[in-house]
Amino acid sequence: MLPGSYRSPAARFRIWQFKEPLEKAGYDVVIRVPFPDREKKLSSGKDLNLPGRLISLLRVASAWWITRDAHKFSAVITNRDIVPELNVNFIEHRIIKKGGKLIFDFDDAIHLGLRGNKLKLFLPDCAYLVGGNPLLCEYAMTLNRNTVLIPTVVNTDYYVPIENKRNDILQIGWSGSSHTNKLCLPLLEEPIKILAQQLDFRFVVISNQDPEIHWEGVNYEFIKWNPQLEVEQLQRFDIGLMPLYDMPVERGKCGLKAIQYMALGIPALVSPVGVNVQIVEHGINGYHCDTIDDWIKYLTMLYSEPNLRKEIGASARQRVESYYSVNHALKLWQSLLNE
Q: Residue 181: what pLDDT?
C-alpha cells in the first residue's frame, strides 16, 4: 500500500486504517511512504525544511526506490498518484509494465485541471480504479471499466457516541483544515450570527489553524486539531455542520466530516452537494441545508428538541455502521483483492 502521506485525511481514512483489519483477515500488508511524504513531512510529523526543488527530487527518487519490487506483490494499492505535485507518471508505468497489479484509489476530484492529463496516461492500464463516490467512479469508468465504489469510512470501534454529554451549553461545531475553513465557514456566518441573537450556544471550530472568527454576538471557541484526540474533540459537538459551495471540486468530496459526526451520534447538517445527498437522509439522520433559512430552521429545531437530537443521532450512527464503517468497506476491499 502506498498512501503517500502519514497523516493526511486521504491517507489515514483511505489506506492506513485498513492495515490492521486486512492483517487480521489474513493478508500480508506492507505500507511504504515516499521520503518526505506528500505533505513534505518526516514520519515523525516534523516539516523538512529544504528547498522545494530538492524536496521534489528526493520524493521522486524515494518513490522510485520504494516501488522497485512492487510487481512482486499480489496487488499494489496507491492512494492517488505517487508524486502528485509533479507531472511524473513513469513510476506508475514501471509498476504496470513489470506486471504489477496496480489499484488506484482516490477520494477527491483530482482529475480536474491539468493533472487530469497526467492521470489519463496510466489509469486505463491499472488493474482497478477505486473511487470514493459515484461521481468519481463515473469519471473513472470513462478510462477503465474495472472501477469499484468504496466509500470513505470511519472505524466505528473508535468513533463511539457519548450518551450523556456534560456541555455547559449546547455546542454547534465545524471541523476541517485551514484550507477548507477559509472556503466553507463564510457560508455559516449569516445564519450563526442570526441564531446567536436568539439562542444560547457555543460555536466551536476544530482546525489546524484558528480562522479567528469575529462574528458579532457569537460565542466562539477554537480547538486546535490533534490527530490523537480527534474523536474526543468531535465528541463535544451536539450538532455538526458541513457547508459546501456547489462547485465541481466540492461535488467530488466524499463527505468525511458528515460521516465522522454521524458515527458519533451527532446530527449532521450538510449542504446537499455531491455525495452528501446520499450520506445524509434528510429528516432521518440529518438535514440538508440549501439556504440561510434552512440552516436557521433546522438548527433551531434541533436546539429546541433534545429528544429529536437523540433520535436523529441514533439513526445517523446506525447508517454509518451499515454503509460507512471500516467493517463494511473491508468486505468490499476483500472482494476486490480476492478477485
A: 86
